[in-house]
Amino acid sequence: MFYPLSLIISGLVLVPNLLFFLAKPVKTPANPSKEPVFLVVCERLGQIICFIAPLFYRLNFSGAWEIIAALGMVLMLLVYYFCWIRFFTHGREYRWLYEPLVFIPIPMALFPLGYFLLASGVTHSIVMLISALVFAAGHIPISLIQYKHKQNVST
After folding, report:
1. Cα angle at 115 between 59 and 15, to 5 degrees?
2. Coil, helix or strand for 146?
């Protein structure tokens, strides 16, 4: 069964990413970082499933856990949007994609992952949980590699 309303989960994360494609970052490193293929496969596979899986699961806000998960999703999304606003208001400089937020490293990688993990609770989806974990297995190390590469290039 399909639940098109559940695609709001994916849509809310995709909005700033679509803006990113319209306004590419500036001051990008001349030589891109090199990520292991296995991590790239994990990241892409997890992303694809995280974006498609909600279509097959109904949003459920019937219990305390679901409401707590939904509130957590809102918090994760708001911080994620804040990081995107920070990126766009700082001239779209590449470094702002990876800059820590206070004491939180790579927030633009961690907050959408938290969002998708919590979405698995709202949808009661093991598939969503596993895909978020696969996404995390690739996305976190790749973001750290890119952050360290950015640090090495700028020094």
Report:
1. 90
2. helix
